Amino acid sequence: MKKFLVGCGSIFAAFVLLGACVAVIGGDSDEAEEIPPEETEQTDPDVAETPEQDENDSEEETSAEEEEEKKDSGVTLDNFQKIENGMTYDEVVEILGKEGELISEAGEGQYKTEMYQWEGDSGFGANMNVTFQNDEVQSKAQAGLE
After folding, report:
1. 110 with 134: CB under 8 angstroms?
2. Backbone angles phi, psi at 135, to 5 degrees
3. How would you label 65-103 residue by residue, b for 16+ Cβ within 10 Å and e otherwise?
4. pTM of the model
5. CB 92 within 8 A of CB 135
6. Cβ atoms of 92 and 83 closer than 8 Å
7. d(Cα 75, Cα 112) in Å, to the nearest integer?
8. What gap in Å lies between CA 130 and CA 115, rounded to an integer?
9. Over the chain (146 residues), what is each successive 10-residue block's mean pLDDT?
10. Angle at Cα 128 formed by Cα 127 and Cα 133, nearest 5°?
11. CB-neighbour burial class of residue 128 (10 A; exposed 0-12, middle 13-18, buried 19+)
């Protein structure tokens, strides 16, 4: 009976020690952090636009044009579908607009096989892989591209 009580006491002490460690490391999570309200910009409709505002408008137009150009390049489903068997790595990079990450490599000479991965532009987890043999596309796969 004495061994049983000593064992239970040791287990209880271990839980208390573990709880203390979690409290020290985890901090106090019961209190919510106060976030100040965001300041909103109010404009007076009677006030005419200043030249500074006109510059901002032209910047917005430029960024819209840049976004349109981005749609034509990048790791998207449309660009994934443009990739065809037999294309070289450089041709694929030209379509996607960026280099891929080499994730697998095997063989040498005419039997060299490489697999590259590109992270997608459409959100978390979106990606595509392209397998090259002798610098020509042999297969491709994608997940989550839009």
Report:
1. yes
2. 60, 30
3. eeeeeeeeebbbeebbeebeeebebebbeebbeeebeee
4. 0.53
5. no
6. yes
7. 25
8. 6
9. 55 54 46 48 51 54 54 84 97 96 93 95 91 96 94
10. 155
11. buried
Q: Given the DSSP bridges, would you call strands 113-119 and 127-133 parallel, antiparallel or unpaired? A: antiparallel
Domain map (residue ranges) of the chain? 71-143
AA letter at 105: E
In sequence order, which residues have a C-beta less than 8 Å from that of residue 25 and are 6 or more positions away? none
Cα–Cα distances (Å) from 1 to 7, 9, 11, 12, 14, in that order, read 10, 12, 16, 17, 20
Alpha-helical runs (H) found in 27-141: 51-72, 77-82, 89-96
Residue linked to tokens 């409290």: 23
Q: Are 128 and 140 in contact (CB under 8 A)?
A: yes
How is domain 71-143 classified at the architecture level of CATH? 2-Layer Sandwich (3.30)
